[in-house]
Structure formats: C-alpha cells, structure tokens
Amino acid sequence: MRDFTVNALAIPLADLYHPAPPRLIDPWGGLADLRAGRLQLLRPENFQVDPLRLLRAFRFAATHGFTLAPELEAAIRTYGPLIQGVAGERLHQELFRLLAVPQAAPTLTAMERLGFLFQLFPELADLPGVPQNGYHHLDVWQHSLLTVNCLEEILPQPQRYFQASAEFVAAYAAQPNKAVLLKLAALFHDAGKPKTAAYREDRGRYTFYHHDRLGGGDLSGGRPSVAAVRGGGPHGGSPY
Predict the structure, then answer these.
(1) What is the pTM of this model?
(2) Phi-psi bin for 200: left (phi > 0), alpha (psi -120 to 50), beta?
(3) 44-66: per-residue pLDDT in tens?
(4) Which pLDDT score is estimated for 47?
(5) Mean pLDDT over all residues of the chain?
C-alpha cells in the first residue's frame, strides 16, 4: 500500500524487455502531482495503517520541495496525534533526513502550523506565548524557530560569523549527524523556560533561572520523541 500519489506510479515489468518506452501505470494521477510539485495522499486511512507516513510527508516536502495538498494537510491535522504511537527508532530516521537539508526551518514552521510538531515533540508545546524581556523581540517559541533559521544561515558560511573559529565549526558540522544535532539543540535550547518563567516586580522583567538544566532534562527518559532524537530504542544508542 503506497502512501502518496507520486510514489504510486509503476511500469509493467514486461515492458522493460522491449525497446519501446515503457507504459506508465498511474491510477491516482501521480504524474500530474509530480509535475506540479504537489504531495497528495492516496487515502487518509493509510495514516492509521502506518502513522510514520505523517512525518514522511514533511520529509518529502523538505528533501524534494513538494507543497502539501490541502487534502493532505487536513488529514495531517486529523491523524497527527497517531505519531506518538510510532517507535522512536523509526521516527529517528525520517526526522534526521528532514533536518539534514540545508533549509529545514520552513518545514518545521509548516509542521507547527498544522499542529503536528507538538505532537512529535510535546516537550515544546508550552513554548508559544511565553514572553521574554526587551532584548528578545519574540516569544520563546518564535525565538526558538528563528534560532534554527539563523543556524541554517550560519552553517554554509561560518567564516562570516566565527573568523578564527570558522574552520573548527565547519569541520564539526561536516561530521555525520552533527548539523542535525545542532538544529535540534537550537530548537530545544529554551525548552525549560515555560516551567521556570517568573515575573520579578522589583526588576520589571521576566526571569528563567536554571532553564538550561530543566530543558536538558526534557530529552531524557523513554518517550518516543526522545528516542527519535537519540536513535535506537527508548534507551538506545546516542548519535552524539
């Protein structure tokens, strides 16, 4: 059972033995979707059979530049919570492929817009709307997304930002999975702020004491989201 129209295309095997071009079997209109750069689902209930397809839709959008068809977006909104039942090691593979593209931030934004990102990472669900102080012009969530955006601007050209350390940064990011882990660190770096936020009347400002320690603790334990980051099973091997 295929998940999207663009990968439900086929050719008869017998045609490969003839010099004429093979015939295309396209019962779902996948060729038209492929030409339009559109990702369309076959049946919404396919997400119930394997909810990993929800994340795969965003991975295809990131790696191949597809736009999500309105029907697919609606199905993602409906079936998104099912992603929490997928084994972390399966999530890990799709997630790391998605984040490995040079510009993954727009896809993360789309995942949040469709209510999917916080199903995948419930640890981040409290970030929207948490205010910060004057030198932050965004709330905690928008600031975290912007951090990923800025990181993706820095990684291809570290010499513009790090001068003497540029060679080290480039060498580090070139190692397997390191750029992906940096993006995850950027996304999660303020995950502890909602639980530590306090407004100091005497100072007229918000404080987030020890949010770094609490945020680090969010990526421990046996949740599928943690295994998606770490790889392996819920307590499996780390990619660090």
Answers:
(1) 0.86
(2) beta
(3) 999 999 999 999 999 999 999 99
(4) 95
(5) 88
- Spatial distance between the Cα atoms of 13 and 23, rounded to a whole number of angstroms: 10
- 27 and 74, same domain (yes or no): yes
Asked whether the beta carbons of 73 and 114 are under 8 A apart, the reply is yes
Is 172 within a domain? yes
Q: What is the DSSP letter of 233?
A: S
Classify residue 92: in a domain, yes or no.
no
DSSP annotation of 165: G
Sign of CA pseudo-dihedral 162, 179, 238, 80: positive
Gap between the Cα atoms of 48 and 83, Å rounded: 10
Residues 59 and 123 in one domain: no
Q: Where are the beta strands (DSSP E) in 99-200?
A: 198-200
Range of 57's domain? 1-86
113-150 pLDDT, tens per residue?
A: 999 999 999 989 999 988 887 677 888 999 999 999 99
**DSSP category for residue 166:** H
Residues 110 and 227 both lie in one domain? yes
Residue 97 within any structural domain of the chain: no
Q: How many domains does the chain have?
A: 2
User: HSE of 31 in the Cβ direction (CA atoms, 13 Å)?
Assistant: 8
